[in-house]
């Protein structure tokens, strides 16, 4: 099992044999943790069950579940997955009606699913993440999760003016630093927060 922490975002890699995991009301009562977990399937198949929904995950797919309410995870064979831990308060500021989004399969064929898998793999293997980049990278992961879930109910699209302003700021920063040998995606993200 590998693990990393990016500001408030937890990342871990789980490789295991067939099993079932049950988060029961009794287990929930013993802790005050308020997190959303996102399972990103890497090998094998798995099931995420919450809110009377079942998400069947194949390699590259992801689904989210809420630790403050009962859930089940089922794996019939050996598997490997990446698990993201997002603070409940953070996700609830980005998304309305989170209960409508749990145990929903985001397929790897969608851009967000493919990008999230690649990004998480990279972050878990890169031990040289600059401190100033960590917050921007954590936000990027959170936004990829939100982007993947955006096809389901409960999400508002960001205002077009906000997206246009962000893009203009990114372009301006890149133009201003074109001759900077340290120019990178991470440095631009860190500068623009």
Number of strands: 9
Overall pLDDT confidence: 84
Instruction: Give a quick account of the main beta sheet: strands, pairing sense, barrel closure.
Output: 5 strands, antiparallel
Give helix and strand order, one letter per element, not per position. Answer: EEEHEEEEEEHHHHH
Give the count of helical stretches. Answer: 6
Radius of gyration over all CA atoms, rounded? 18 Å
Strand content: 25-35%
Shape: globular
Question: In which range does the helix fraction lie?
Answer: 25-40%
In the sheet with the most strands, the strands line up as 1-2-9-4-7
Task: Give the low-pLDDT segments.
Answer: none
Briefly note the structural class of the backbone: alpha+beta
What distance separates the N and C termini? 30 Å
């Amino acid at each position: 099992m590998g693990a990393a922490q990016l500001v408030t975002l937890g990342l871990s890699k789980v490789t295991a044999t067939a099993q079932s995991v049950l988060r029961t009301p009794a287990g929930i009562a013993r802790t005050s943790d308020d997190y959303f977990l996102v399972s990103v399937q890497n090998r094998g198949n798995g099931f995420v069950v919450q809110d009377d929904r079942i998400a069947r995950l194949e390699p590259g797919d992801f689904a989210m579940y809420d630790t403050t309410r009962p859930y089940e995870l089922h794996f019939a064979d050996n598997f490997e997955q990446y698990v993201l831990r997002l603070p409940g308060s953070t996700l609830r500021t980005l998304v309305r009606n989170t209960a409508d989004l749990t145990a929903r399969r985001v397929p790897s064929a969608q851009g967000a699913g493919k990008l999230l898998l690649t990004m998480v793999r990279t972050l878990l293997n890169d031990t040289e993440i600059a401190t100033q980049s960590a917050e921007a990278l954590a936000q990027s992961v959170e936004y990829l999760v939100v982007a993947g879930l955006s096809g389901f109910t409960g999400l508002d699209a960001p205002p077009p003016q906000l997206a246009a302003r962000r893009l203009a700021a990114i372009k301006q920063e890149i133009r201003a630093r074109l001759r900077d040998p340290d120019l990178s995606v991470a440095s631009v993200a860190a500068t623009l927060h």
